[in-house]
Amino acid sequence: MTTRHYPTIADCVGQTPLVRLQRISVPNNNLVLCKLEGNNPAGSVKDRPALSMISLAEARGTIRPGDTLIEATSGNTGIALAMAAAIKGYRMKLIMPANMSQERKSAMSAYGAELIEVSREEGMEGARDLALTLQAQGEGVVLDQFSNPDNPEAHYRTTGPELWQQTGGEITHFVSSMGTTGTIMGTSRYLKEQNPDIQIIGLQPADGAAIPGIRRWPEAYLPSIFERPRVDWVLDIQQQDAENMMRRLAREEGIFAGVSSGGSVVGALQVAEQTENATIVCIICDRGDRYLSTGVFDPR
């Protein structure tokens, strides 16, 4: 029997590529770099906090293999948690709005998760309320990505250090969509410790926009992990702009990603219009294949 160490699938989370835009024009002698989080095993940036939340809860003794975990999700976190639960031997109940793409629902089921849907009108707020109700009824433990410090901690430990190392410390701006806000909170904390002059730019949907993974939360539902001082600017992203850029990324750069990733590049290019000689990094949150059934990639 060989003593060689082989990785498990959990060991493959993180260390994703950082690539530059090469055909989409970037103004003012700036460099826009894209962090390809779709290269994680379950296909999104959410693999990082999903594994973190389960592993750290397990280490504290809050949960044990065989327990039932509950989470409200719009898609990517649910897929990532379903994968992490499968790795570690937990049952997973996921609550999501019914209007999420079929690919997302099918991926969660493939990993063995139980899906519970709320109406489009109830949305993520309704899903979060139902998760807490099920926990109160003794049906499982809510991980609660919206208030769980293990969510941003994953990015403080991994995403931030990777970006600092991959850019050789030359990063000047970090651009990230804001949903749970875990990515921007943890990455901001790490990068600001290395260089407080690095600018952190958060993205939220413009009024009327519906971009999966990006939210403008009602005050009562604002994630408690969110700390406003960690974000230097906030940009509003139009849905049409995000979708157009998503299609351009696939056709002009070979980067096949979702709508929020298109929004991330739109935000990075807006930053590039306002500065020069900068190294601007943006998060490409997931892969485009989980949006095909929505028609957003159809020729137009």
From TrEMBL:
Organism whose genome encodes this protein: Nitrincola tapanii
SUPFAM superfamilies found in the cross-reference section: Tryptophan synthase beta subunit-like PLP-dependent enzymes
Keywords linked to the UniProt accession: Amino-acid biosynthesis, Cysteine biosynthesis, Pyridoxal phosphate, Transferase
Family assignment from sequence similarity: Belongs to the cysteine synthase/cystathionine beta-synthase family.
Positions bound to pyridoxal 5'-phosphate: 76, 179-183, 260
Gene3D superfamilies noted in UniProt: 3.40.50.1100
Origin organism lineage: Bacteria, Pseudomonadati, Pseudomonadota, Gammaproteobacteria, Oceanospirillales
Name of the protein in question: Cysteine synthase
CDD domains: CBS_like (cd01561)
